[in-house]
Amino acid sequence: MEVKKTQILIAFEGIDGAGKYTVLSSVRAWLKSLGYRVECSSEPNGESSPLGKHIRAILKGELPMPEPLEMQRLYVLDRAQDIACLINPFLRQGGVYLIERFAFSTIAYGMCEGIPLEKLVALHTEVMGDSMRWPDLTVILDLSGREAVQRIAAGRDHFEYFEKEEKLETIRQNYLAIAAHPRFKDATVVIDGAPSPEEVFKKTKEALVARF
Predict the structure, then answer these.
(1) Residue 103: which of 121, 86, 88 has the closest Cα?
(2) Quick check: 61 pLDDT over 70?
């Protein structure tokens, strides 16, 4: 099969438990079956990135939580590394890069801590300047805070810093506000994350076909 050349970055966003990795995996398999080069990763990268490991340790309560803006700065610094070392090198060779969590996570979760949306957007420019690469499309999987907590509890025996129903519901509303923001609405699609994984993938695939 001929390899199809393109340069597309797609981010999958949503609160914890929304099913981001599940639909990303389905999209990856589908795109590969169509002949595209596909790579994927997650943020923060707790396996290969020292900064990602540091962030993971904070979220698990193994290290003290920094001030809200400094915590989000850690995420942006980790993102800068992903863009420079993973995303851009891959896209220059032609392909589709899928990432679980990206800039919208910093914005939505930072807003939950009282940081204004515009300040969180500006933080990316402050850290990366013109090297910041915004996704060609961000897919937000929308799920209620209550259902997210139920899914998390069914999947593991502990909750991380943000994984409380009220907090997750606030972050959900932040995601929806970002999706409607004039700067981002044309490159964002919101998919209902409550149905079965098969139905969520079907709706996501339809959105990707319509967009690309």
Answers:
(1) 121
(2) yes
Is 160 a residue whose pLDDT tops 60? no
Length of the chain: 212
Beta strands across the sheet bearing 38-42: 38-42, 95-100, 7-13, 137-142, 188-192
For residue 104, which amino acid is it?
Answer: F
Q: Distance (Å, rounded) from C-alpha 208 to C-alpha 33?
A: 15
Give yes or no for residue 125 having a pLDDT over 70.
yes
pLDDT tens for each residue of 84-101? 999 999 999 999 999 999
Q: Say if residue 77 is exposed, middle or buried (CB neighbours under 10 Å; 0-12, 13-18, 19+).
A: middle
Tell me the whole-structure pTM to 2 decimals. Answer: 0.91
Domains of the chain: 7-211 (3.40.50.300)
Q: Are 113 and 123 in contact (CB under 8 A)?
A: no
Count of C-beta atoms within a 10 Å radius of residue 102: 25
Q: How far is CA 13 from the centre of its chain?
A: 4
